[in-house]
Amino acid sequence: MPAKSPTGAFARAQAKGEEALRTAMLDIAAGLLAAEGPAALSMRRLATAADCSTTVLYRLFGAKDGIAAALYREGFARLRRRLDAVPRGGDPAAYLAALGRAYRANALEEPHFYRVMHGEAIPGFVPDEESRAAAAASLDVLREAARAAVEAGLLRADADVDEITDTLWAAAHGVISLELGGHFPGGLGEERFRVLTRAAVEAFVP
Protein backbone atom coordinates (compact mmCIF):
# COMPACT_ATOMS: atom_id res chain seq x y z
CA MET A 1 0.00 0.00 0.00
CA PRO A 2 1.48 3.40 -0.94
CA ALA A 3 2.97 5.42 1.89
CA LYS A 4 1.02 8.53 2.73
CA SER A 5 1.78 11.60 4.75
CA PRO A 6 -0.28 11.89 7.96
CA THR A 7 -2.90 14.61 7.76
CA GLY A 8 -1.24 17.96 8.22
CA ALA A 9 2.25 16.43 8.65
CA PHE A 10 3.79 18.73 6.07
CA ALA A 11 2.22 21.84 7.58
CA ARG A 12 3.25 20.87 11.12
CA ALA A 13 6.82 20.15 10.09
CA GLN A 14 7.02 23.36 8.07
CA ALA A 15 5.88 25.34 11.11
CA LYS A 16 8.76 23.89 13.14
CA GLY A 17 11.41 25.05 10.68
CA GLU A 18 13.52 23.87 7.77
CA GLU A 19 15.32 21.08 9.63
CA ALA A 20 12.09 19.56 10.95
CA LEU A 21 10.61 19.78 7.46
CA ARG A 22 13.62 18.03 5.95
CA THR A 23 13.46 15.26 8.56
CA ALA A 24 9.75 14.75 7.95
CA MET A 25 10.31 14.47 4.20
CA LEU A 26 13.05 11.89 4.76
CA ASP A 27 10.79 9.82 6.99
CA ILE A 28 8.16 9.84 4.24
CA ALA A 29 10.79 8.97 1.62
CA ALA A 30 12.00 6.04 3.75
CA GLY A 31 8.41 4.82 4.02
CA LEU A 32 7.97 5.05 0.25
CA LEU A 33 11.19 3.16 -0.29
CA ALA A 34 9.99 0.35 1.95
CA ALA A 35 6.49 0.18 0.49
CA GLU A 36 7.16 0.71 -3.22
CA GLY A 37 10.89 0.24 -3.82
CA PRO A 38 13.53 2.63 -5.19
CA ALA A 39 11.39 3.69 -8.16
CA ALA A 40 9.20 5.61 -5.70
CA LEU A 41 12.06 7.99 -4.85
CA SER A 42 11.06 10.60 -7.41
CA MET A 43 10.31 14.23 -6.68
CA ARG A 44 6.76 13.87 -7.97
CA ARG A 45 5.97 10.72 -5.96
CA LEU A 46 7.44 12.15 -2.76
CA ALA A 47 5.58 15.43 -3.26
CA THR A 48 2.31 13.53 -3.66
CA ALA A 49 2.93 11.45 -0.52
CA ALA A 50 3.95 14.51 1.48
CA ASP A 51 1.16 16.69 0.08
CA CYS A 52 3.58 19.44 -0.90
CA SER A 53 4.99 20.93 -4.08
CA THR A 54 8.04 19.61 -5.89
CA THR A 55 9.51 23.10 -5.48
CA VAL A 56 9.84 22.46 -1.75
CA LEU A 57 11.67 19.18 -2.40
CA TYR A 58 14.07 20.71 -4.92
CA ARG A 59 14.89 23.37 -2.35
CA LEU A 60 15.56 20.75 0.33
CA PHE A 61 17.39 18.11 -1.70
CA GLY A 62 18.57 19.78 -4.91
CA ALA A 63 17.59 16.92 -7.22
CA LYS A 64 16.29 13.36 -7.22
CA ASP A 65 19.73 11.93 -6.44
CA GLY A 66 19.82 14.28 -3.47
CA ILE A 67 17.06 12.27 -1.79
CA ALA A 68 19.19 9.11 -1.76
CA ALA A 69 22.20 11.03 -0.47
CA ALA A 70 20.08 12.67 2.24
CA LEU A 71 18.66 9.32 3.35
CA TYR A 72 22.20 7.93 3.59
CA ARG A 73 23.49 10.82 5.67
CA GLU A 74 20.38 10.99 7.84
CA GLY A 75 20.72 7.30 8.66
CA PHE A 76 24.25 7.76 9.94
CA ALA A 77 23.30 10.97 11.76
CA ARG A 78 20.59 9.08 13.65
CA LEU A 79 23.04 6.32 14.44
CA ARG A 80 25.54 8.82 15.82
CA ARG A 81 22.92 10.42 18.06
CA ARG A 82 21.91 6.99 19.33
CA LEU A 83 25.49 6.00 20.15
CA ASP A 84 26.30 9.38 21.71
CA ALA A 85 23.34 8.93 24.07
CA VAL A 86 24.77 5.73 25.60
CA PRO A 87 25.98 6.44 29.19
CA ARG A 88 29.73 5.93 29.47
CA GLY A 89 30.01 4.68 33.05
CA GLY A 90 33.34 3.52 34.43
CA ASP A 91 33.63 0.08 32.85
CA PRO A 92 35.07 0.17 29.29
CA ALA A 93 33.92 -3.40 28.57
CA ALA A 94 30.35 -2.69 29.67
CA TYR A 95 30.37 0.51 27.63
CA LEU A 96 31.48 -1.33 24.49
CA ALA A 97 28.70 -3.88 24.99
CA ALA A 98 26.14 -1.11 25.52
CA LEU A 99 27.24 0.58 22.30
CA GLY A 100 26.74 -2.70 20.46
CA ARG A 101 23.21 -3.04 21.81
CA ALA A 102 22.44 0.56 20.85
CA TYR A 103 23.75 -0.04 17.33
CA ARG A 104 21.49 -3.07 16.90
CA ALA A 105 18.46 -1.28 18.37
CA ASN A 106 18.96 1.64 16.01
CA ALA A 107 19.14 -0.70 13.00
CA LEU A 108 15.99 -2.58 13.98
CA GLU A 109 14.07 0.64 14.63
CA GLU A 110 15.27 2.34 11.41
CA PRO A 111 15.55 -0.63 8.97
CA HIS A 112 14.87 1.40 5.81
CA PHE A 113 17.57 3.93 6.65
CA TYR A 114 19.90 1.08 7.65
CA ARG A 115 19.55 -0.59 4.25
CA VAL A 116 20.32 2.70 2.48
CA MET A 117 23.36 3.22 4.72
CA HIS A 118 24.80 -0.12 3.64
CA GLY A 119 24.06 -0.02 -0.06
CA GLU A 120 21.22 -2.52 -0.19
CA ALA A 121 18.17 -0.35 -0.86
CA ILE A 122 18.90 1.93 -3.82
CA PRO A 123 20.62 0.27 -6.81
CA GLY A 124 23.29 2.43 -8.35
CA PHE A 125 23.53 4.87 -5.46
CA VAL A 126 27.14 5.70 -4.58
CA PRO A 127 27.73 8.16 -1.71
CA ASP A 128 30.22 10.93 -2.31
CA GLU A 129 33.37 11.41 -0.25
CA GLU A 130 31.77 13.97 2.04
CA SER A 131 28.92 11.58 2.83
CA ARG A 132 31.35 8.72 3.45
CA ALA A 133 33.34 10.92 5.82
CA ALA A 134 30.15 11.76 7.74
CA ALA A 135 29.34 8.05 7.90
CA ALA A 136 32.78 7.20 9.27
CA ALA A 137 32.48 9.97 11.86
CA SER A 138 29.29 8.38 13.21
CA LEU A 139 31.45 5.57 14.58
CA ASP A 140 33.87 7.88 16.39
CA VAL A 141 32.26 7.04 19.73
CA LEU A 142 32.86 3.31 19.11
CA ARG A 143 36.45 4.06 18.12
CA GLU A 144 37.01 6.02 21.35
CA ALA A 145 35.45 3.22 23.38
CA ALA A 146 37.82 0.73 21.79
CA ARG A 147 40.76 3.02 22.57
CA ALA A 148 39.64 3.27 26.21
CA ALA A 149 39.44 -0.52 26.43
CA VAL A 150 43.00 -0.80 25.07
CA GLU A 151 44.28 1.81 27.54
CA ALA A 152 42.56 -0.03 30.40
CA GLY A 153 44.38 -3.24 29.45
CA LEU A 154 41.17 -5.04 28.49
CA LEU A 155 42.28 -5.31 24.86
CA ARG A 156 45.77 -5.92 23.48
CA ALA A 157 48.11 -2.96 23.74
CA ASP A 158 49.39 -3.63 20.22
CA ALA A 159 45.89 -3.79 18.73
CA ASP A 160 45.03 -1.14 16.14
CA VAL A 161 41.97 0.83 17.24
CA ASP A 162 40.66 1.16 13.69
CA GLU A 163 40.99 -2.59 13.20
CA ILE A 164 39.05 -3.24 16.40
CA THR A 165 36.33 -0.79 15.36
CA ASP A 166 36.02 -2.21 11.85
CA THR A 167 35.93 -5.79 13.15
CA LEU A 168 33.17 -5.05 15.67
CA TRP A 169 31.22 -3.10 13.05
CA ALA A 170 31.51 -5.92 10.51
CA ALA A 171 30.42 -8.53 13.06
CA ALA A 172 27.42 -6.46 14.13
CA HIS A 173 26.41 -5.65 10.58
CA GLY A 174 26.57 -9.27 9.45
CA VAL A 175 24.21 -10.49 12.14
CA ILE A 176 21.85 -7.53 11.81
CA SER A 177 21.59 -7.94 8.04
CA LEU A 178 20.57 -11.57 8.46
CA GLU A 179 18.12 -10.62 11.19
CA LEU A 180 16.51 -7.94 9.03
CA GLY A 181 16.29 -10.51 6.26
CA GLY A 182 14.16 -12.71 8.51
CA HIS A 183 16.76 -15.43 9.06
CA PHE A 184 16.73 -15.20 12.86
CA PRO A 185 13.10 -15.38 14.04
CA GLY A 186 12.00 -14.82 17.60
CA GLY A 187 14.83 -13.99 19.97
CA LEU A 188 17.54 -15.67 17.90
CA GLY A 189 18.75 -12.38 16.45
CA GLU A 190 19.68 -10.97 19.84
CA GLU A 191 21.38 -14.21 20.87
CA ARG A 192 23.39 -14.51 17.65
CA PHE A 193 24.36 -10.85 17.90
CA ARG A 194 25.65 -11.31 21.44
CA VAL A 195 27.65 -14.42 20.57
CA LEU A 196 29.29 -13.04 17.43
CA THR A 197 30.13 -9.58 18.80
CA ARG A 198 31.59 -11.20 21.93
CA ALA A 199 33.74 -13.45 19.73
CA ALA A 200 34.89 -10.36 17.77
CA VAL A 201 35.96 -8.63 21.00
CA GLU A 202 37.71 -11.75 22.30
CA ALA A 203 39.93 -11.76 19.20
CA PHE A 204 41.64 -8.70 20.72
CA VAL A 205 41.77 -9.81 24.35
CA PRO A 206 45.34 -10.16 25.72
From TrEMBL:
Domain HTH tetR-type, first and last residues per copy: 19-79
Pfam families assigned: TetR_C_33, TetR_N
The organism's place on the tree of life at top rank: Bacteria
Entry keyword annotation includes ATP-binding: no
A molecular function (GO) term: transcription cis-regulatory region binding
Keywords, sorted A to Z: DNA-binding, Transcription, Transcription regulation
Protein name stated in the entry: TetR family transcriptional regulator
Organism: Streptomyces cellostaticus
Species lineage: Bacteria, Bacillati, Actinomycetota, Actinomycetes, Kitasatosporales
